[in-house]
Amino acid sequence: MKQRRKAVCLLSGGLDSATCLAVARREGFACYALTFDYGQRHRQELEAARRVAAALGAADHRLMRIDLAAFGGSALTAEIPVPKGRLAAEVAGGIPVTYVPARNTVFLACALAWAETLETGDIFIGVNAVDYSGYPDCRPEYIEAFERMASLATKAAVEGRLRVKIHTPLMRLTKGQIVRLALELDVDLSLTHTCYDPQSDGRPCGACDACLLRRKGFEEAGVADPLERRR
Predict the structure, then answer these.
(1) Alpha carbon of 156 to those of 111, 115, 131, 147, 194: distances in Å?
(2) CATH number, domain at 101?
(3) 230 vs 26, 50, 132, 142, 178, CA distance in Å?
(4) How would you label 80-105 residue by residue, b for 16+ Cβ within 10 Å and e otherwise?
(5) How many CB atoms within 10 Å of residue 154?
(6) Beta strand segments in 45-158, E
(7) Is the dihedral of CA 100, 102, 105, 106 positive or negative?
(8) Structural domain boundaries enclosing 47
(9) What is the pLDDT of residues 168-225, one digit of tens each?
(10) What are phi and psi of 184, to 5 degrees?
(11) Using the 8-state DSSP alphabet, how is residue 14 labeled?
(12) Considering its fold, how many domains does the chain have in total?
């Protein structure tokens, strides 16, 4: 039996990362899911990641603890209010306070370390440059730069034993297209979590940027969000 190629897949438990994991699976990879407990203010996304990894048959799922809250500077890691009820133009303009300094750089560096020990150069991340909240580390030029750096920084790449490839299958998709792709790949979106500031019982707030972008995606796709029934 032919052994499947391995890939490290960053998995937050949200709509995008779950769909990205499903794409990697469709492409024939054995998926090694990596989730971070990075000091975020709520834990719902960690449980969502566990559910998604199990449902999509990840070969392994690791939860890595790092403390970006030690530096603060973000509404997701410090006592800074999460913006609510912003208009689409506001969401699309500027870098919001929910940006976590260097988060994707830290995450990708850790994914790169695991990938090298797995003897693979394939890493999947669900970043998006169309419907996104202005994060600089979601842009294609950032991913290209990290890929170049990774090829210089790893022993396996320098020795020519592997080629580092950062896969970004959602980069050019709208949120509506991502929802449709998830449904085509049989992703159970009721297992995911998107909200930046969930209620005490875990239900989404419905008003933060992440909730508004998610709602926009389901409306564009013409389907109901299973999480809306929980609100």
Answers:
(1) 14, 10, 35, 14, 35
(2) 3.40.50.620
(3) 30, 20, 24, 36, 22
(4) eebbeebeeeebeeeebebbbeebbe
(5) 18
(6) 60-65, 122-124
(7) negative
(8) 6-230
(9) 999 999 999 999 999 999 999 999 999 999 998 888 999 999 999 999 999 999 999 9
(10) -60, -30
(11) S
(12) 1
Q: Is residue 163 part of a domain?
A: yes
Q: Which pTM was predicted? A: 0.94
Pick the closest to residue 154 from 118, 104, 112 (CA basis): 112
Give the pLDDT score at 42: 86
| 1 within some domain | no
Question: Can you say how many angstroms the Cα of residue 166 is from the centroid of all Cα atoms in its chain?
Answer: 13
Indicate if the alpha-carbon torsion angle 189, 50, 80, 66 is positive or negative: negative
Q: Rounded CA gap, 166 and 122, in Å?
A: 6
